[in-house]
Amino acid sequence: MKTGIARTLGGALVLLLASVANATSTSFNTSWIHWVEQNRLYQDDGWYKVMHYRAISGGARSDVEDADFFFAPAGRFDPVAELFSSVRAFMTDTPELGDAAAQCRYPRRFEWVLEHFPEDIVFPQVECPALSAFIEQSAPSGMTLIYPNAYLNNPASMFGHTFVRIDGQSGGETRNALLALTVSYGADVQPNENGFVYAFKGLTGLYPGSVRSHPYYRQVQNYNELESRDIWEYPMNFSPAQAETFIKAGWDLKDININYAYLLENCSYRLLSLLEAAFPQYDLVDDFDVYAVPVDTLRTLGRAGLLEAPRFRPAIASRIHFLAGELAQAQVELAQRLVDDAVAPADTAALAQLPAEQQRLVVDLAYEYSRFKAKKERSGMAEVSYGLLRLRAQQPAGQLAPPPEAWPSEPMQGHGVRRAGVGLGYGADNTVHARFRFRPAYHDNYDRQAGFLDNAQVNALQAEVRLSVDEDDEADLALDRLDLVDFRSLNPYHAMTPSLAWAGRLGWLRQGPQEKALPFGADIGLGRAVSTGSNSLGFLLATAEATTAPQLLAGLHAGWLVDVAAHDRFGLEARIAHDVLAEEPSATLTATYNRVLSTHRAVRFQLAAKTQGQTLESSATLDFNWYF
Question: For 414-627, which CATH superfamily applies?
Fold first, then answer.
């Protein structure tokens, strides 16, 4: 492919060489031009990765759309011209340019050129104050990949997020991780952007994106505290010198707009591309042609041997739930009163009656609860927190976070996000049919839960196809379901971390095998989930649904989910609805059992009964599912 590009651009290259040579002054060495052409450096895989080039039909194209990233006018599509133009820019730098010098604007590109040019080709010496100051501030000693868990309340984070922390050192000692700088990529979204506008722009790639850096403590405040997302920290197998190279690769994209696309060109894909630019010996983005899910990028880096065992940084809600689980209900209520009543004397007197260890746990829980509550009620919470800290100072040191044995399963231990299924179904028409199912992403409430956000469901572009034989013994292939999105969040209600249960779906669904129409519909549900034991929960949602059938339905959706054995799950779900347009009620009862065979294999059995008007229909399905 790259040889073909060189042939295609051969004529342009000759003209370029001539123009470069003619434009040079006596201070500009042109000997490198023939050396580059002789060695065809522009075909080097490293050049393609440093410039973020990807193969396309008949040539190449950089993932970077911003013209400011290139020196050649057609540099985005012309690796040959861009290499010669870049080297010429580096050659013509002068010391007085400072940070405006090409070597300072694109330090990783310049570093790569230096690595591949012979020593007798000399470049001007230029100081880069801004870059040097950033590297000095970072004082890199290594790198850590950061993975905040999925967050269903933000479409951009419903699959999780990834970025890199540059671990620092001072005087030979490792710095506090919270003070380290981070490198990340994200969409440049306007404040208070409409959710539908955000979804449309994100899916269509209309958002500009950029590489940015923030102190890690700000990221922790955002993800761990404000959004209450657990964070996994994976140390990476890179040296201090390699960490500095990564900083330079990120600096190359400083102030450069790179379009953000929610499914593929997202935070995780860009991060892999940035790592390739820093370390061209790794092939990290080849597996991602259509979409990139953060946990898949973790697995890609894991397969490359770049990740070590992770550390767990629990969210504030996770710390509250852990501490509450160590106490009796009366003591949990006392901790809540200490905050809600502003450390009232009666509550501190009750606290003093407890054994010392329980006093510590109650005060720790109260303090974490005060921090959680302060996110919404800042007024007066500072004084409450101060009062709790004074109480805490009187207690011995203790453990606020869950010990390793109580950590949830880390993300890479989960099933593959893609699911393909084949099975049999028995329908209301008393016939057996074959079923084929495919879901590109991501996870549902009955899949193996390890490695995923508890009780969260995100199905994207899920399709179900039915193959049956009609009365004339002819095969009939029909699409029964296509979900654009199918969300469900069933976090059990907790008095200290109150949350709503909710669900939403948008897509096409056939009402029965005899129905010819495949109506498009949207439904939402809002209510509450409650814990019914250590491994089970119940939920009740008020629902509304509209379809092109046409239908306009209002009703209730109730269910009970229980974990069976190690990873199996059983569920009972009931729906009742009233069609406002047809003045007709309906009810559905479904029983589902998911039997996990291995991390990436499962069998799912489902029985369903539905009444509508005076009719009763029953169905059964058995599916074998592969996750990959």
Answer: monomeric porin ompg (2.40.160.40)
